[in-house]
Amino acid sequence: MREPTLRFLGGVREIGGNKIILEDGPDRVLFDFGPAFDPKYESFYVDFLKPRSTSPVRDLLEFELLPWIDGLYAKEALGGIEERYTDPAFHAVFVSHAHADHAGYLRFVDPAIPVYTSEGTRKILVANSTTGPTLKYGEHPWELLRPGSPVKVGNLEILPFPVDHSVPYATGFVVRTSEGAVVYTGDFREHGPRAALTRTFLEAAKAEGPKALLLEGTRAGPDPRKNLSEAGVRAALDTLLAATRGLALVSCYPRDVDRIRTLHEAARDSGRTLVVPAKTAFLLGALKGDASLPLPQPGVDPNLLVYERSKKKLYNWEKPLLDGAVGAEEVRRRGRELLLLLDLYQFPELIDIRPEPGTPFVHSMSEPFSEEDVKDAVLKNWLGHFDLRPHQFHASGHCSGPELEAICGEVGATNLFPIHTEHPEAFHDFPGRFCPPEKGVTYRVSTGEALT
């Protein structure tokens, strides 16, 4: 029987785009499948110039923006190169969380291949595809993971553990192979409101005495960002809102419901109401009912309103959310009572809202890797035009460099594979054998050595 191996087809010297193949004898699984935040993409596709819907895989392959992987792609996604289609050669795809750089290419996967993810992640993906016409994930047999409950794929045993991240329901994995355990962190942090989940995962990983640790390192290397906790963001918001007599504006990652909860509580305790986009309201409703993640609900919570932006057409999912919604005129009139959450698509509403010069604008996301963040130059242009006063309050979704080094020492893996980082060299002196992966190269789980 062939020994267990790892092959990295994304997340190598780049942020996001994780595509990790684990094989053990006849058993073959893929962990995550999404695009990297790669400037090369915008060298060929930008704005309305996109890969054709009839041949998306072919169009991305043309410019090496997607790797060819035998037995993975849906025949319908190949468009024009259907002769390269082969029957599915993967037993499963495991998705760590709902960010696009980990799940955004699922729509290309053969519909016969089952996709495993947490129940909460599945709910977020369904909400995304409902409110975002371009966010589609394909038709698959969806299998829901239960925390700590092992999944058998052939002789592989995959144990999922919830971890803390800037999107809820993220998962880290411990995989038992024929030659020892492989630990894959996905994206995670230790300083968020669910840090205890991350602790439990790391303790379980340590107990396995793993042969390989696949560790995300978004913040490894140069990192000028402040490492605020969510409580630190809340404290900064409290101070700002107490000193603000008029409208306050904020922007955050739209699926960071921990941040939305922080904004809601800060607004409520300062005598304000949080006003959110319809997409945010829809997501809050989709995640309703989880006692471990209590979220304000549109139409129920008196300190939560929905913003109705100017548009010619309403989608069916929007209509139930707009009863009692507020528009630009009411926001302008009631400014001192409100905290308005803006997403990228709402910035033109500032033209109608006409915020007072000096109105505070809180940019509550720091990573320049978010697919829904506003490019710095464009953001500065909007803030400058309306004379808004910028503030930066954010708790990262990722561990800092020192935290990552401590985690390596704690888990005690034999081989360390840094992924999801532009600076794998920052891991060189961390505990464990340093195994910086190269794209497309196969590595032994047992020794970390490359197979030639």
Question: In a few lines, what is going on in this structure?
Answer:
With 452 residues, this protein is an alpha/beta fold.
Strand order of the largest sheet: 6-5-4-3-2-1-20
Name the CATH homologous superfamily of the largest domain: Ribonuclease Z/Hydroxyacylglutathione hydrolase-like
Number of domains: 2
Radius of gyration, in angstroms, nearest whole number? 22 Å
CATH-derived architecture of the largest domain: 4-Layer Sandwich
- CATH structural fold name of the largest domain: Metallo-beta-lactamase, Chain A
Provide structural commentary:
With 452 residues, the protein is of the alpha/beta class. It has 2 domains: 5-222 and 397-444, Ribonuclease Z/Hydroxyacylglutathione hydrolase-like (Metallo-beta-lactamase, Chain A); 230-392, Metallo-hydrolase/oxidoreductase (Rossmann fold, 3-Layer(aba) Sandwich), CATH 3.40.50. 24% of the residues lie in helices and 20% in strands. It is built from 12 helices and 20 strands. The protein has helices spanning 56-62, 75-78, 100-103, 119-131, 195-207, 230-242, 257-269, 278-286, 328-333, 350-353, 376-385, 401-411; strands at residues 5-10, 19-24, 27-31, 92-94, 115-118, 142-145, 151-153, 156-163, 170-177, 180-184, 212-216, 248-252, 273-276, 304-306, 338-341, 360-364, 389-392, 415-419, 433-434, 442-444. The chain has a 7-stranded mixed beta sheet. The protein has a 7-stranded mixed beta sheet with strand order 7-8-9-10-11-18-19, covered by helices on one side. The two termini are 18 Å apart. Mean pLDDT is 93; it is low at 367-372.
